[in-house]
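Comment thread on ticket #2218

A.B. wrote:
> Attaching the input chain for the structure job we discussed in standup.
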Amino acid sequence: MTTYIIRRLFLSIPVLFGILFATFALARLIPGDPCRAMLGEKATKVVCDEFNHRHGLDKPIIVQFGVYVGEIAQGDFGTSFRYSKPITELLKERLPITVELSFAALMVSIFIGIPLGVISAVRHNSWVDVVTMMWANVGVSMPVFWLGLMLAYVFALALKDTPFQLPPSGRLSAGITTVPFFETWGMQVKEDTFSFTIVDFLARMNILNSVLTADWALFKDALIHLILPAFALSTIPMALIARMTRSAMLEVLGQDYIRTARAKGMGRRSVILKHAFRNALLPLATVIGLSLGGLLGGAVLTETVFNLSGVGRILYDGITARDYGIVQGFTVVIAMFFVLLNLIVDVSYAYLDPRIRLN
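C.D. wrote:
> Ran it. Output below, let me know if you need it in another format.
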């Protein structure tokens, strides 16, 4: 197992290098000039020459790429043109929001999609199956930006002054303050170290930080603000998980060992949960892993609609401003998440099905 993991990590290096090269090249193929995108169309040639020299944009492309690869190898993602801040600082500020939103959306997808898929498979060709699959098709087809606006309208305006009212935007209510858990615990972590980066990153996730500090007012407020964006973002993966669960369960329920278990007199619930569902988990693991990666990279519209300053929002701003550092840095980090999630999914196969051995 250890050898397999190490080999996969080494094989991921050329994958990440290819993504880095493709992102670097495509970012520079976007029509427009970073100088005029930042300083305005009336920026003079002298001003733009100075801007390009300051940011190294006057060097040949191959030289720029070599410099960027060298910086990435040292953990330096460069500096943003737009914000005049290191990309690592922006990652530390924005990535926790997207990670928190993505995990919340994934939990909604799993806890709703899997039961619906199982029920649909067990009640195959019944009205429950038909309604579930119709809902799944609608969920896959429904635009996230439209659903987000409709949810905000219904729960913020139509249900205003009712127990079902929910905030339409933002991450916390005005006046709610957060205290990082490492300060509450009295942890002494030196700044500008890897350990501080990790604990500070975790502390910026409001749900996790509120649990670790036992701040239940913060937990309630953060959770309420997360409901609408998480549900809007979860509709597509929820529908995919429901359809995949149904398909996998139908295939397993037709196997000989399921008929044998029924013939032995085992209860229906035991047959479905202990025999059928456990053997249907392999394809579900793949879908769930890829869904989380897709959620991390596909939250642009959701974060824009609900005014969340996460990865998706800053990526959109970076593309419109021709901010190469933001586009390249955030894309590489999301690609790293994809590679790591694929590795976790592959390793989980050996635990979900003992017949599989990873060598």
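A.B. wrote:
> Thanks. Noting for the ticket: The two ends are 6 Å apart (CA to CA).
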